[in-house]
Design a protein that fits this description.
Blueprint (H helix, E strand, L loop, with lengths): L6 E9 L15 E8 L5 E9 L5 E8 L3 E6 L15 E19 L6 E6 L1 E3 L2
Antiparallel strand pairs: 1-6, 1-8, 2-5, 2-6, 3-4, 3-6, 6-7
Length: 126
């Protein structure tokens, strides 16, 4: 596929990482994930900013998604510039230098009956 698909700026208005879960780790660790698809011929250089209700944003978290690849990025694993706090509401923006597609997924394993949700992030059209 030679055609680039997607957008360069995405927003995820909802985010929350529970501090605990049920089941074996790492498969059943409660988490938030941004699934990023890069269909272009060049690597996508991604910057993520995290927004909170009661403090200044944190970022950028920098990630590269190679050309014609996908990356499933757990927000739990983001460490630099600082880990994302657990049990805290947040939102995020994802900016890329080439068009990408972003899907948001959450696994909430706080109860024995796990919940998995997934939705397309909001594409910001510039």
């Amino acid at each position: 596929m030679k055609k680039e698909i997607g957008h360069k700026v995405w927003a995820i208005a909802e985010g929350y990482i529970p501090s605990y879960g049920n089941g074996p780790e790492p498969a059943f660790t409660s988490h938030e994930t941004a699934c990023i698809l890069n269909t272009s011929e060049q690597d996508a250089h991604i910057e993520i900013f995290i927004y909170f209700e009661d403090r200044e944003p944190v970022g950028p978290y920098k990630v590269t998604v190679p050309a014609k690849r996908t990356k499933h990025l757990r927000f739990n694993d983001l460490q630099d510039p600082e880990p994302i706090p657990r049990d805290t509401d947040y939102a995020s923006t994802i900016t890329s230098d080439v068009p990408v597609v972003v899907q948001h997924t959450r696994l909430d394993s706080r109860q024995a009956e796990n919940a998995l949700i997934s939705t397309l992030a909001y594409p910001v059209i510039n």
